[in-house]
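STRUCTURE REQUEST FORM
Protein name: MerR family transcriptional regulator
Source organism: Amycolatopsis albispora
Requested output: C-alpha cells
Priority: standard
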Amino acid sequence: MITIGQLARYVGVSAKTIRVYHNKGLLPEPPRDASGYRRYDAGHAIDLVKIRTLAEAGVPLARIRELRAATEEEFQETLTRLDADLTERIAALQATQERLRRLAHGRLLALPAEVRAHLDQLPRLGFSERWVELQTDLWILVYATQPGTASALFHEQAQMLTDPVLREMFLDYDHAHDLDPHDPRIDALARRAVQATRARYGTGDLPGQDTGTEIPAMIQAAVNASSPAWQRIDALIREQLGLR
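Status: completed
Returned output:
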C-alpha cells in the first residue's frame, strides 16, 4: 500500500492530477487509514497507467470515464481507432519535421526540386530579381498551406510560361511594378490578361481560386501590397472577369 505521492512518482503524474481523476470519477478513491492517509494498491497503479495512456493519446476525460464502463470489445475497438489516429498524427508531425529541416538549410529547400529549377530560370527569361523573390515566397506559402493542390497549380503556371505570348504578358506585368496606376499601359495589360484568361479557361473556375480557404486572397493581397500598379491591374481584371 502506497501514498498518493508515491503513486504519482511511480506512474509519472502529479498528485493533483490523481485528485482530478478522483473528482472526475475515473479512478476509485480508496478509504483513509487510521493516520488519515489514503493508501493505494497495485490495482490503482494499473488503472492510473491506463488512464494516463489514454489521456496522453488525446482521449477526453469524459470519454475515458465511458470507456471504464465499456465492454472489452468496445474498449478494443476504441484502442484500434486511437492507434490509427496516432499513426496519422505521427506521419503529419514527421512531415512537418522534414519541412523544418529543409528550412534550416535554406528557404528554397522547402520547395520541390522542380520548383527551385523553375525559379532559377526566371532571371534568364528576363524576370526581375524582385519577381523571383516574390514568386519564391508565394510558392513556399502555397506548398505549406495547400500541399494537395500545390503541384497542379505549379505545373499550370510553369506550362503557361512556355507560351511566348503568355510569357511576354507576365514579363510586362513584372515590369509594370513601378508604373503609375493610371498609366494607359495598365489598362491595356489588364485587357490582355482578361483575354488570355478567357481563351485558356473559358467561363469556368480559375485554378487555385476555389480552395475553401483564404489563401488565394492572401496571396493576391501580398502581391498587390507591393505595387499600386499591380493592385489596379488586379482590380481591373477582377471587374472584367466578374470575380469578387
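Reviewer notes: The chain has twelve helices and no strands. The CA atoms of residues 190 and 235 lie 9 Å apart.
Form closed.
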